[in-house]
Automatic annotation (TrEMBL):
Membrane among keywords: yes
InterPro entries in UniProt: HTH_AraC, TPR-like_helical_dom_sf
DNA-binding as UniProt keyword: yes
Pfam families from the UniProt entry: HTH_18
Domain HTH araC/xylS-type: 444-556
Sorted UniProt keywords: DNA-binding, Membrane, Transmembrane, Transmembrane helix
Name of this protein: HTH araC/xylS-type domain-containing protein
Transmembrane segments: 388-406
Highest taxon above the source species: Bacteria
Organism: Snuella lapsa
Amino acid sequence: MRYTPNIKIKHLCLLIAVFLILQAFHGNYAQDSLSNKSYQELSKLSDDAFYNGDLERLSIYRTYYLDKAKTENNNLEMARAYQYFITWEDLETDLKYCDSVIKVTKDSDHEAYPTNGYLLKANMYYYGSDFEKALDNYIIASEWADAKGYKPLQIEASMGIAAIKNIWGLHEEALEIYKTNYLDVTSTTDYMADRYEDYILFANNLALSYIRNQKPDSALVVSSRAMSHARSVNDSLSYYDLGKVQATANYYLKKYPQTQDSLLKFLSHYSGLTRSDSYYMLGKIADYQNDHALKMDYFKRIDSIHQTIGDPFPELKEVYNELYKDAGNKGDKDRQLYYIDQLIAVDSTLDINYATVNNKVRLEYDIPRYKKEKRLLTTELKNKRQQLQILTIVSFIILAILLVYINHRHRKFKKRLQQLLDNDPVETTEPKPKKEKPALDISEHIINTVLEQLKQFEADKAYLDKDITLSSLAKDFNTNSSYMSNIINHYKQMNFSSYLKDLRITYAINSIKKDHQYLKYSINGLADEFGFITADSFSKAFREKTGIKPSYFLGKLREENNT
């Protein structure tokens, strides 16, 4: 049987074929539609696609631009095409495009090439913090710009060199470059109209360079003048930037109120490192004003910014050092460990980025000591956590034992209470001499007489008299205290004091159980009622006889009475 394809598969194949034809047509159409475009028009189309986020069209325009330049053997436009492909996101690929720019324009007569290629490479290395390679390329760019006498790129190259000199601590050399560029602009007729942006840039850099060279007065003059010009043309962005420079100059002049006012006024317009540096100065001013809490608040804000942007600056080491000490003073080991980690990371980054910086501009932090402290803190925290775990386990065991003990005691009390409720204690005590004790050296007549008197004493509840004593009772019985004591010890099997307490507590228990009026009494009232001088003596005697407190006994009876 001959195989016949499924109708759905036929339709699918047909759709794919149509799609490929349309794509090819679209590609050819796009190529045809661009064939009559000039480089300027292609450049505009590329810019529009870029700003609109249309990456597909952007790729088409850039590729056609380069192909057109190659077809026409136009090296200058090829260089511009390579520049369009630079994304500032993939350093390795972008550097290759820069090298292509340099390669195709090395023999160019154009005033800006191959200088532009070297400047692009220098800027990429600079923003990638590879300052040595950045400097190499700035120097080459400067030589090409000088050779071609093209001032804009001469200035750009010199500004890059000055920036690296600042990073390496060569502030005096950088200052000379900034002064040269500033004077070159301000000596130009009508520079405010023709070279305003250059003027603002150079004024800003010159004022900062004066500050780095410990000449804040000169920085104030330059920045104040530039601020006036920026305000006159409603350039608020430059005005705020220069305001930061002016505040910095006042800070180094120790004009703290003016610094504080300017920073707080413009702070909302700053972000990133500019905001961090503002917080740093505000923190130092707070320290000068002995406001430690405010200083720490500003330094913690710097930490928050650093966690976001991850771009360290030299003062950041001081910030983390202060935060570390503050956490130590508060006994916060976890925060101490966090700040040490940050300090070590910042120092490591700065060491890499500023390896050739003169030692006199480095802050004197003993990083090896901090690393040792970090190890000690880590160990201490680990030990504390282990101790906490052990303490938790021990506490749990103790708590469990305590609960078992309390439960056992509660059940014991409950059992004793139930025995008291179910059985009435005997109010009289029959003579029960211990067999092992020798007979008393007292006549039988006297013994029998005293025992009979004691029986009547118990029946009359005479023991409730709080003032009764061994001597007074012996006197009432017409005998002596010695006989009385010996007879009670022998036949009642307790001393006189215990004998009285036993009688009184027994009577108290029976009375309270029978007459609920006693439930309204306080412990003091009951003690007085049943022959005790103090509530404490009553409670102690009650507990010795029953094993429970009178308050517990009364409480349970009251509960039952209420129900």
